[in-house]
Design a protein that fits this description.
The chain has 267 residues and is an alpha+beta fold. It is built from 11 helices and 6 strands. The strands form 2 sheets. A 4-stranded antiparallel beta sheet has the order 1-2-6-3, with helices on both faces. The longest helix has 27 residues. The protein binds cobalamin. One of its GO terms (molecular function) is oxidoreductase activity.
């Protein structure tokens, strides 16, 4: 394992202000004790046979913007994070290439348009699985990868590399509290109480809702990540109490602010 290279990659990520970085050995996808029954075609080595490790980065979505969803504010925040993910993973792949290790970045999503997802709501590579195997978090009832730092309010990008980087340990302690707020607050009832990956029963319903929001420049939805109580970012933004998202006395000031934002910049 190349620990010197690992330190260089971590230092590069710090310079780029990337808060979450993890490494996964490709053998984790092939180990049935940690991998759910993901079809083999989705394994990194099936996609690129030279792959030895996967480098995963995570960038947070900022809670105050997300709280206004569906809105232009979250819509733009989402686009910014997506653009950065693609740029950062491309640049990290180039960094590794320059160090002599063949590497390639994977697009943060991997579909041409949300309408494509109505018939086939699957991409060729799963970043949430990569993030899990890179020790960045574990799965919640909302089907998202929850991290200690940001709960599910973090988007991931991956670099496939031939470099043998030391794998990070998986997070064993379950982060999801099973509070069911994601299930109860989903505006189109697309989630149920089953554990991942059965929980998202209505992928097409979720995708269709997202498509409707996209026509108005309000996509994506993101309510299931907004209401999740997990993540240190809630402390940072003074949002430990998720009751703020339900009508209750003393929360009018917030509701007015969110409604104000939702009225502008969209159809
Ligand atoms: C398609 C997609 C969607 C679709 C469909 C949802 C879906 N497929 O789960 C729609 C538009 C509905 C959607 C919605 C959202 N998404 Co989305 N989405 C994706 C995308 C592009 C592909 C997912 C995928 O198909 N991966 C490949 C498959 C193989 O893996 P998987 O879905 O991760 O896992 C499945 C398999 O393992 C499968 N499985 C397990 N065992 C078995 C066994 C067999 C036999 C089979 C066939 C399958 C199977 O079941 C798992 C669950 O469906 C990813 C980006 C990416 N490329 O990873 C983002 C991604 C998953 N989305 C993300 C987010 C944040 C969201 C939203 C919150 C919207 C938002 N941005 O605000 C919502 C949340 C919906 C929810 N609660 O699940 C993030 C998740 C971040 C995190 N912290 O986990 C990702 C990773 C984007 C990113 N780059 O960060 N999404």
């Amino acid at each position: 394992m190349n620990t010197d290279l690992e330190q260089k990659v971590r230092a590069r990520c710090r310079e780029m202000e990337i808060p979450l970085v993890g490494f996964a050995d490709v053998s984790r996808w092939e180990d049935s004790s940690v991998n759910p029954d993901m079809p083999e075609a989705f394994y990194p080595r099936s996609i690129w046979p030279e792959c030895v490790s996967v480098l995963v980065i995570g960038l947070p979505v900022h809670l105050p913007a997300l709280e206004t969803t569906p809105s232009i504010w979250y819509h733009e925040e989402y686009r910014t994070v997506n653009a950065l993910l693609d740029q950062y993973t491309y640049r990290l792949a180039e960094f590794l290439n320059r160090h002599g290790y063949p590497s390639v970045s994977v697009p943060r999503d991997g579909y041409g348009h949300v309408s494509v997802l109505e018939d086939n709501p699957v991409a060729f590579f799963s970043h949430r699985h990569a993030a899990y195997f890179a020790g960045l978090g574990n799965f919640g009832i909302n089907n998202m990868l929850l991290t200690p730092q940001y709960g599910p309010r973090v988007r991931f990008g991956s670099v496939l590399t031939a470099a043998p980087l030391p794998p990070d340990p998986l997070i064993e302690e379950m982060l999801c509290t099973r509070c069911m707020q994601c299930v109860n607050e989903c505006p189109v009832q697309a989630l149920n109480e089953e554990d991942y990956p059965e929980g998202l029963t209505e992928k097409a319903t979720c995708a269709k809702y997202s498509q409707r929001l996209a026509r108005d420049y309000r996509a994506p939805c993101g309510v299931c990540i907004k209401v999740c109580p997990v993540g240190d970012d809630r402390i940072h933004y003074h949002r430990e109490d998720t009751g703020i998202y339900r009508e209750k006395a003393g929360t009018e000031q917030y509701r007015q602010a969110w409604e104000h934002v939702r009225r502008y910049g969209v159809k």
